[in-house]
Amino acid sequence: MNIIGINFGHDSAATLIKNGKILYSIEEEKISRIKQDIGWPTNAIEIILKQAEITPKEIDIIAVGGNIYKELGSNEIKYRFNKSRGTKRLEYLDRILAYIGLRSNRFTEKNKNVFEQQVKAKGFTKARVEFYNHHLCHSSGAYYCAPFNPDVAITCDGQGDGESFNFYIIDHKKGLTPIKINGHEVSVGAFYSCITQLLGFRPTRHEGKITGLAAYGKPSVLEKEFLKLFVYDGYGNLTRFPFNGVDELWKKHNLASTLKLSHKINLHTSESSIGMNYTKRYEILKTKIRELTKGFCKEDIAFACQKVAEKIVVDETRKILNQYFPNKQVKVCLAGGVFANVRINQMIYEMPEVDNVFVQPAMGDSGLSIGAALLSDIAQNGKPANTTDYKINDTYFGPDFNKEIDSFVKEILNEAIVTKMEQPAKQIAQMMKDNLVIGLWNGRMEWGPRALGSRSMILNTFDRTVNDSVNKRLSRTEFMPFAPSIIDYMMETYIPTYNPDCPAADFMTITYDVAPEYHELLQAVVHVDGTARPQVVKKETNPYYYAIIDEFYKLTGCGAIVNTSFNAHEEPIVSTPQSAYKALKEDRIDALVLDSYLIQMIK
Questions:
Q1: What is the pLDDT of residues 68-91, one digit of tens each?
Q2: How many CB atoms lie within 10 A of CB 10?
Q3: Quick count: other Cβ atoms within 10 Å of Cβ 258?
Q4: How far apart are CA 389 and CA 198, in angstroms?
Q5: To which H or E segment does residue 153 belong?
Q6: What is the pLDDT of residue 225?
Q7: Residue 515 DSSP label
Q8: Residue 587: CA atoms inside 13 Å, Cβ hemisphere, count?
Q9: Sequence-distant (≥ 6) Cβ neighbours of residue 268 within 8 angstroms
Q10: Fewer Cβ neighbours under 10 Å: the N or C end of the chain?
């Protein structure tokens, strides 16, 4: 049984499950080089099929994360498959005709047939197409991949299939069963994105900048005002401003007049009724927040935003856990874009009600592809709801380009100095000690937004100013320091509250307080609030990377190094040797390591 799971929205991605085993998971952007690429993951699927030696006709099921055909017109679906300009023009014409009343609502069940036809046109002639609920895909990707057996799965994001903040338990007959669904109307993700946009950043992409900026802010009355945007109604249900009268508020503030014509057309014609309501609520919320934040600096706005998001997520989680698991510490797993917020994850982990936490490494929408594939595989093979077949210990599900290295190296001999390293770990450790910035490319690419030693930029932790100098080379504007990769035998020394049984640090998805006596040694990776977002490096999951840090410890007495993603600002993480070499040519790094090859530019 060959199943390909896909995410068809932003952060397009593909996952292959063959005979019950996860073989590949690849984000389209890392191959296409288009940040947050959208639609059919053409390049990712092509690589998966090639490396797995499978043809499109051998795929049995295409499992789609989310009922996305309900939100798109037929020409938009076609465009996302073929990226044809002509099809896009037809889609624009559809929107205009609908806007002026010459075309009825285009979002019907018939669009499911359009989607299926496009799949067959891609060569998947024998594949059945299945659609799975957005948040169920998030929860399954977290639950089934967790290294332990979770008691509850929690999802939280902007919105998907009309939902935004859900809780699931395992039913041994029915599988993951929702015990609490919060609709898009209460979205914490939308609240955070609103502030991201108002502070001049791109929503759904730059929320991490707000998390970093928050550490430089201070408490103010704004926190209290933001909290008023979230309340519990008389039935104990979480609600969020605007609480009611959306259309009346829309008219009262004359918000339609503030939109460009293209945005007006999109609002009324390019989304489902849920999408239209969500967008209106978002614009009303943005107007309210703009009024509340007048006179406050960006840092204090970010601080209040972060504190309120933490409180709302933790309070709702505590309410549900106490209701369904009274007097018990539970193991939780998390997925959805809000759980890219590592501070929120730390807050959940530190709750007295929580025993352990796992965050799906691809917590955003790219992770829908793995969730959909898992749901399909479980259904087709009659696996028990609590199957342990999919538990993961690493994220190296990306493509393997190692066979291409030798031929690529030959191509660049006339413009670069290429050295075959006899002892890579020792040589790389020495270069880091000498303050060089290394681009590390080794083995299969990571799955998810974090670079975890396979596609990483690495350097020593001894100088906080590298946060500015390296970011300048990468054309980045960041407020958080870089994250550390810490060798396992030093984790509890640097991070006293670290528990080896907690897998969140394996994937760099949580912050911890760093022991104060090591702030100086680790100054490039400790934030102003004394926290860090570590990756614990274990020999059994990445022996190459482990050996480098081990040698660095022997040289310097420091068991941690800086690890930042291998890309310039607004670029995806590098994938191929070619994209890694491009960073060297552009002087983003001092040296490039391709497996055992050391590459430096001729000066």
A1: 998 888 999 999 999 999 999 998
A2: 16
A3: 12
A4: 44
A5: strand 152-160
A6: 98
A7: P
A8: 6
A9: 98, 99, 276
A10: C
Q: Looking at the chain, how many residues does it have? A: 603
How much is the pLDDT for 268?
Answer: 63
Question: Given the DSSP bridges, would you call strands 163-171 and 175-183 parallel, antiparallel or unpaired?
Answer: antiparallel
Cα–Cα distance between 461 and 235 in angstroms, integer? 51
Q: For residues 457 and 588, what is the distance between their CA atoms, to the nearest angstrom?
A: 9
168 sits in which H/E element: strand 163-171
At residue 94, the 3 state secondary structure works out as helix
- 101, exposed or middle or buried, with CB in 10 Å at 0-12, 13-18, 19+? exposed
Residue 483: which of 454, 505, 516, 515 has the closest Cα? Answer: 505
In angstroms, rounded to a whole number, what is the distance separating the alpha carbons of residues 134 and 66? 4
Write the pLDDT tens digit of every residue in 161-190. Answer: 999 999 999 988 889 999 999 999 999 999
CA distance 75 to 81: 10
DSSP annotation string for 19-47: TTEEEEEEEHHHHH--TT-BSS-HHHHHH
The C-alpha atoms of residue 61 and residue 378 are separated, in whole angstroms, by: 12
Rounded to whole angstroms, the Cα distance separating 154 from 364 reads 13
Give the separation between CA 135 and CA 369, rounded to whole angstroms: 12
pTM beyond 0.85: the answer is yes
CA angle at 588 for the pair 585 and 594, rounded to the nearest 5°: 65
Evaluate whether 169 touches 332 at the Cβ level (below 8 Å): no
**453: region left, alpha or beta (phi > 0 left; psi from -120 to 50 alpha):** left
Tokens encoding 510? 């949580």
HSE, side-chain direction, 13 A CA sphere, residue 459: 29
> Which residues, in sequence order, are CB contacts of 129 under 8 Å at separation 6+?
61, 62, 64, 115, 116, 119
How many angstroms separate the CA atoms of 398 and 283, rounded? 38
252 close to 280: Cβ distance less than 8 angstroms: no
- Does position 479 have pLDDT exceeding 80, yes or no? no
Collapsing DSSP states into helix, strand and coil, what is residue 458?
strand
CA distance 87 to 121: 15
